[in-house]
Amino acid sequence: MLSIKFPPSSVIDQGHCGSCWAFGAVESLSDRFCIKYNMNISLSVNDLLACCGFLCGQGCNGGYPISAWRYFKHHGVVTEECDPYFDNTGCSHPGCEPAYPTPKCVRKCVSGNQLWRESKHYGVSAYKVRHDPQDIMAEVYKNGPVEVAFTVYEDFAHYKSGVYKHITGSNIGGHAVKLIGWGTSDDGEDYWLLANQWNRSWGDDGYFKIKRGTNECGIEHGVVAGLPSDRNVFNGINTSNDVLVSSF
Questions:
Q1: Which residues participate in catalysis according to the annotation?
Q2: In the predicted model, what is the mean pLDDT of residues 84-89?
Q3: Whole-angstrom Cα distance, residue 198 to residue 201?
């Protein structure tokens, strides 16, 4: 199993919105800020989801992961404290009904003592990672978690443990998540380790492993990332081929 000191990883719930593309990006960037600047920060999915607009895709109906990272570079993203996620009801995954509409962009912190502009945190780059597994591992080792997009089949919904490989069921859409590491099972099977955002009741306490090195479900061809900027980090606000995804 990979042994790198990363910040504690959390599993969240995207709820009734197809916002996986935003969660995968924001959660990965948050971790990268923690790693580079030794700070505890949680960035806002809601800012990206509501304010990026058509450049990122269709909001709760899916978006483009690479465009999320470009948004971080050009517009920044506020903290979760400033703009919390709009859906806190949770649900059973995948495919929560009814589907909620994309929230409106407000550009105002919920807390009166915070300023939207000063709560922004930025990226300095947005890039696709080469699909060679060695390149993906090198990127994670050097800079932290990455966002990956892959095809979801019916059998993935029933994953509980072990190393996932698609066996049966039809294609039911695309999905994006945070890739946090890799390893080899007791049976000698190489895998990627990922954090989903379907809450802890799904999968292995919210996490899953998928076969590594064979581009299982296209997961090694949809890797994107970016590097965090120190802009607004030290101002006293916080010291502690593109694929549209997804249907979920």
A1: 20, 175, 196
A2: 88
A3: 8
